[in-house]
Amino acid sequence: MELQLYKRKLNLPYNSLIYEYLIDCHFQNLKEDAKYKDAYYNFLVSDKKFFDFFDTLYEQFYQQSVKIFGQLTLMPDNRRSCWIQVSNKYDIGGKQLIHNHIQSSIINGVYYFCVPEKNTGKIVFCDRYENIISKYQPSENTLLIFPNYLNHYPEVCDSELFRIAINMEILCEEDVWMTKTY
Question: Are 142 and 112 in contact (CB under 8 A)?
Fold first, then answer.
């Protein structure tokens, strides 16, 4: 079975202010919402201060998807949102549950903003029976594009440094994956 996974290196400049903002948001959200103390927590970027960076990132995700699949007709409820996952060895929750994005997108993307050199944890892809079919070692400034139906989860980042992944989705009219299910 061939895994439909596209890897693209992006040329986005590293910004320490964005890094600090994302780490601060991570800890603020964990402090304010105790229900997330035992799980990985994804949060939506909402600060307009860094809008240009995240808008540029989403646009690059969209343009890379167009290069792969051809012109896309976005659905009216497509959101140009960026969801952030910050993790390191001190996160209490352990591994995130296996999940997919079949209810919210057609095309899914994960951009690795910050990746420690060692013990980063891989992204694991599974079939519908939760059998592992592939693992990918993330690298900084890399965008992964994959089907909405593909089950996946990030392994625990066992580093003192933070791994920061930015998740994005495209909701379009085209069935670019030809309704293949694993």
Answer: yes
Token code pair at residue 10: 């992006």
Mean pLDDT to the nearest integer, 26-50:
70
Sheet holding 151-154, edge to edge: 132-136, 123-126, 151-154
Burial of 146 (0-12, 13-18, 19+ CB in 10 A): buried
Relative to beta strand 107-114, strand 6-9 is: unpaired
Query: Taking the model in full, what pTM does it have?
Result: 0.90
Domains, the chain, ordered by start:
6-33+53-170 (2.60.120.620)
Tell me if 113 sits within 8 A of 140, measured CB to CB.
yes
